[in-house]
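Our platform keeps sequence and structure together, in a single record for each protein. Such a record has a labelled line for the sequence and another for the backbone structure tokens. The tokens are whole numbers drawn from a learned vocabulary of local backbone shapes. The remainder of this section carries one protein's record, kept here as part of the documentation:
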Amino acid sequence: MRRLLYWCVATLLLAVVVHLFVVIFVPGVDTGQKLAQMEAAGEVNKLHQIAAKDTHQVLLTEPSPDLRYAFCKFDIRTRPLMIEGSVPPGYWSVSVYGETGSNVYTLNDRQAGVQKLQLMIVTEDEPFDDEARPENTIIVRVPTASGLVLFRALVSDRSQEELVESHLAASKCGLRPVQQAAG
């Protein structure tokens, strides 16, 4: 009986250790791999819309068929990143990830309540006067100089697919112009 109890406790402890390992380490590895795939998929500091048929290869292992995606891999070592999002009707979100894949910032349609989204991404250690920011621009401070911005937009029915995709295509991602960055 004592031997059976020993093996039950040992098996339970091993299961707990394996579970904790998977919960703690596997998501970071998977996110890192996805970020590397996205980096290879397009230019840095430029918005890339992902065709619905390509989401499995480029973006997520299990993307939603009702969402359309766009991404911008960024490098802000020289200047802040400016993001202008054309907000489609219905659900949308924009998420900012650091270079390790950790989610730094997320905003969705209900939180924003705007038709035109403006974000400026700067590093945490960059001296930036928040009062000098462009009007109606949200400042997002990130811990690393590189990372990823991911746009998601819901296509609630097929008649809105072109409209949603045109909003994503009208969105922009690029370094802040030098004359603005100096001011």
